[in-house]
Amino acid sequence: MTRIVGLFADLDIKPGALGSLAECHKVAAKLTGILGIKPAVIIESGHGVQPIWRIANTKRSPNCISSAVEREQWKGLLQRWGGLVQQMSSEVRPGSCVDGVYDLSRILRMPGSVNNKNPKAPVPVVTRIGSESRSVHRSSLLRALDTYDAQPIKPRSNLPEAVPTTRGEAWKWVDKQKGSSATVPEMLALGRYRSMLDQLNYDELVAMFRDGTDEEASAYNLMRNRVLYVVLLSTENRAGLALALEFIKRAYLEVMELRRNGDAPGEPRSEREALSAFERALQGAVGRARSRGMSPEPQRDSDGRIVVRHRVDSAVSEA
Q1: pTM
Q2: Pick the CATH number of 6-158 from 3.30.470.20, 3.40.50.1240, 3.10.450.540, 3.30.70.1790
Q3: Tens digits of residue pLDDT in 276-291
């Protein structure tokens, strides 16, 4: 995370939270009044509303994160903003609670996708775009939080725990994924948005693993993260998982061979150790994917791109 570009409120309709879309919009309107700026967009997430304001980036009020100190400052601001959202929710519906999702790593529901919490009644995610909206300055946000004495909301993590997975179970899961065994010609026919064509750049993988450092960007961590990425792509109905994994494995093995031969920096691993490391990465990735489940297929255009449904609304905050 290198900068903060948006400020969001996650307003849910559920027991213990808000009771209707109208109440969600009332909270959004209250927050708009406090900030003095309309949201850039409002996402109707299927069972709630997510207004989003732009964060300005100026010399006096930057939105960049370039140090651990700035990261902690933004972390605190977002948690206090969550406290302000809670205050406004309580004013609209006394006793209601908002989720503690105001952290740097939060990912919101994708516009154009489908909210499938209730499989019997899936709801499309629609975005309302504000035609007139300025950006919120960090200094203005801080003044608003101080004015309302907003206290940090307790963060929570809703990530499910990984499902314990053996190596055999991991490969069986890979084989059962839709389109897992797709060939390059089959992926070309599907296109880059329905397949993993973009993950088949072997030279790029070798270069990335070879240039890894000894810290977070080590060759092993880079390989593990790429394995997790393609495994999760498969849960989003991308074809070609088996071939993508083969490319990653071969690239990692080549880098370890280069190290053993003295042709690349870093600690070498034997071929057996490298294969074992790859298998561990796959086990962990599949365990994460099994806890996540399959994503519903979003609406796509003829090229396979996800269709983002939206409405333009110049008075979006007044809904």
Answers
A1: 0.55
A2: 3.30.70.1790
A3: 999 999 999 999 999 8
